[in-house]
Structures are given as structure tokens and as C-alpha cells.
Design goal:
The chain is of the alpha+beta class. 27% of the residues lie in helices and 27% in strands. It folds into 3 domains: 2-55, Molybdopterin biosynthesis moea protein, domain 2 (Alpha-Beta Complex), CATH 3.90.105.10; 62-166, Pyrimidine nucleoside phosphorylase-like, C-terminal domain (Aldehyde Oxidoreductase, domain 3), CATH 3.90.1170; 172-317, MoaB/Mog-like domain (Molybdenum Cofactor Biosythetic Enzyme, Chain A). It has 11 helices and 19 strands. Strands 15-14-16-19-18-17 form a 6-stranded mixed sheet, with helices on both faces. A 4-stranded antiparallel sheet has the order 6-7-11-9. It has a 3-stranded antiparallel sheet with strand order 10-8-13, with no helix packed on it. Helix 2 (65-76) packs parallel to helix 4 and helix 7 packs across helix 8. It is elongated. The two termini are 44 Å apart. This is Molybdopterin-binding protein.
Length: 341
């Protein structure tokens, strides 16, 4: 830093906070470090008794915190994101749409391993609304070596750290399985639960088939939905390992490739996910989805709706953080359930 006369300081950058004190009226920081001196600031500074100031002396290869913040911003901002103005070397990133937040976690960790840089984010695969805060960035010192930002840019390698995937407009079909519902002995209370969850993503059920616990009926119902234009199929009932629960085998015989029958999530261990050759997703939902507030379905659905094709490994990763604590008052998704990856 260097010492300079206040009257010559317009355009210079303060190296430290300046406090203004007026008895019984004002006491606090008037100008913060990093502030760029404006013409209108000069009289205020002189009234504060500041005849001289300590300002940043530019050196080749060094960046002011605000200039460095713009570089971190550009590393972060992918599709579906917007940024705040810079303030004291800090920039916040927000969602510009409703969608699924995707984070390159490996790149994030590598950048945060670099001294004097930081990027803090929400959890990966988090469903967000337009205007939601996604991340905050800043550099730690007032000035930073350009080389450290160059390293961060090299780590990112042209990829964006954050993006928000928009939700797709699926045509949902439901196959409800169970003799008790098929024979109208009880009311179907499962489908209304699914309908409410789909509404969160502006989806509606366009096709609905109710069938008996009969493999051939289930297979035919699935094929009928597919032929009628369904682009997502959800099956309920008959998902346990009891001998008369034939929904999993029926899904397989309908032509779907089973990604996994079973998931390391509680509630939701008996969840099934498969895909047809045209990438049409089909899910078999265990009974817990009907009566538990938050289940594996709540973790998987936003990814499916965002067009993410899930693998066996993706489902396996749900085990870390996949234990719902069944809190008396459910706060999901603002809790640890499903936040392991």
C-alpha cells in the first residue's frame, strides 16, 4: 500500500476501513476496505480528519478483490444462473429458473483447496426455484496474486461449476396394482399422493390404469400407457418380495431394462427404476411413498423430471444421507435427508 493525499485519491482503492464518529449521532465504518474513492467522498473524508489515505498500490500480477471475484463468478455461472453485483470481493449466484441444481463437486473441491479463494454452494441435485441463492464466492485478501486465479481457471478447464437444469414436460401414466383396489373393496389412496408430488413440477397424470395382481394385466397396462404416449410411467402396489407381488417382474417383462430393484434409502428400500429403449423412465413405488412424508421418490423424482438418466451408481450414492429421521415436523427438503451427494 502507499500513502496519498486525500485530495488526490479519486479512483484509488482503500486498504483499510475508515470509521466516522459524530457524538450522539453516528459511530461506525463509513468507508470499507476496497472502496473506490469517488469525488463526492473527498469532502466527507476531509471532515473526518483524513488529510491522507493509505491506498492500494497496483503491482503487475496482482488483482483487486473485486476483479478476482468476477473471475470466480465466471467459473461458477452455467445455464440457468444469474449473479449479484460485486460487494467487497463477494458475488452471489442465484437460480434464474425453476429446476435441478447440478454442481461439479470435484471441481468445487479442487478450487477450494487453493489458498485465498472460496466458493460455498448448496447441495448438489437440489431442486430450486427461480431466485433461490445457489452459491457465494469471494477471495480472502484485498489483493491477490493473479496466478491463483489462473490456477482456478485451469482447474475448471472451461466447464461451469453450477447449472440449473429446467424441468421437462412429461406425460405421466400410472399403473395402480392391487386386487383390493381393482375390485373396489377399498379406495385408491396412493394415486392422490403421487398427483400432489407431481404438481410440484407442474406435471399432471394423463393416463391411469387400475389392474389386479396379475402379471399379464400389469404388463398390458404398461404397454397401453406407453402406446398412448406416456413419457413417464409410475407403478404402485405389489412391490414387496411376497410371492403374490408381481409388479417388479411385470415391469421387466414389459420391455424395460431394470436399473435397480432396491435402493439404499429409508423409507423406500423397495424402489424400482428402469428405462425403455427410448429412455422412457418407469418407476415402481413401494407403499411407504403413500404414507411417509419424504421417501426415495422425493429424492429421485426431481432428477428424473430434469431429464437426468440415473444409473445404478447414482442410486447407490443415495445411501449416504439416505436415512430419514422421521422428525415430528417434517422440514424436507430443508434437512439432511438425501444430502449426501
Amino acid at each position: 500500500m502507499k500513502k496519498i493525499r486525500t485530495i488526490d485519491a479519486v479512483g484509488q482503492i482503500l486498504c483499510h476501513d475508515l470509521t466516522k464518529i459524530v457524538k450522539d449521532i453516528e459511530k461506525g465504518v463509513k468507508f470499507k476496505k476496497g472502496h473506490i474513492i469517488q469525488q463526492e467522498d473527498i469532502d466527507v473524508l476531509l471532515d473526518m480528519g483524513k488529510e491522507n489515505l493509505y491506498v492500494w498500490k497496483h503491482k503487475e500480477g496482482m488483482l483487486h478483490e473485486n476483479d478476482a471475484a468476477f473471475i470466480l463468478r465466471d467459473i461458477c455461472m452455467g445455464n440457468g444462473t444469474v449473479a449479484s453485483d460485486v460487494k467487497e470481493g463477494k458475488i452471489d449466484i442465484y437460480s434464474d429458473i425453476d429446476g435441478l441444481l447440478r454442481i461439479n463437486v470435484d471441481t468445487l473441491n479442487q478450487i477450494n483447496m487453493q489458498d485465498e479463494l472460496m466458493i460455498a454452494t448448496r447441495h448438489n441435485n437440489y431442486p430450486v426455484k427461480k431466485g433461490d441463492l445457489l452459491a457465494g464466492t469471494r477471495v480472502i485478501p484485498l489483493v491477490i496474486n493473479q496466478e491463483k486465479l489462473d490456477v482456478a481457471v485451469k482447474i475448471a478447464n472451461g466447464d461451469k461449476l453450477l447449472e440449473v437444469l429446467p424441468y421437462k414436460d412429461y406425460k405421466v401414466g400410472i399403473v395402480t396394482t392391487g386386487s383390493e383396489v381393482y375390485n373396489k373393496r377399498i379406495e385408491d389412496t396412493f394415486t392422490p399422493v403421487i398427483i400432489e408430488k407431481l404438481k410440484q413440477y407442474n406435471l399432471e397424470v394423463e393416463h391411469h390404469e387400475i389392474v389386479n395382481d396379475d402379471k399379464e394385466m400389469i404388463v398390458n397396462a404398461i404397454k397401453k400407457l406407453k402406446n398412448n404416449g406416456a413419457t413417464m410411467i409410475i407403478c404402485t402396489g405389489g412391490m414387496s418380495v411376497d410371492p403374490d407381488d408381481v409388479t417388479p417382474s411385470a415391469i421387466k417383462e414389459s420391455g424395460a431394462t431394470i436399473i435397480s430393484y432396491g435402493a439404499p434409502v429409508l423409507p423406500g428400500a423397495m424402489f424400482l427404476l428402469g428405462y425403455f429403449e427410448d429412455d422412457l423412465p418407469i418407476m415402481g413405488l413401494p407403499g411407504c411413498v403413500m404414507y411417509s412424508k419424504s421417501t426415495v421418490f422425493d429424492l429421485v423424482l426431481p432428477r428424473i423430471v430434469a431429464g437426468v438418466k440415473l444409473s445404478k451408481q447414482d442410486l447407490a450414492k443415495l445411501g449416504h444421507g439416505g436415512l430419514c429421521l422421521r422428525c415430528p415436523i417434517c422440514a424436507f427438503p430443508h434437512c439432511e435427508f438425501g444430502k449426501g451427494v
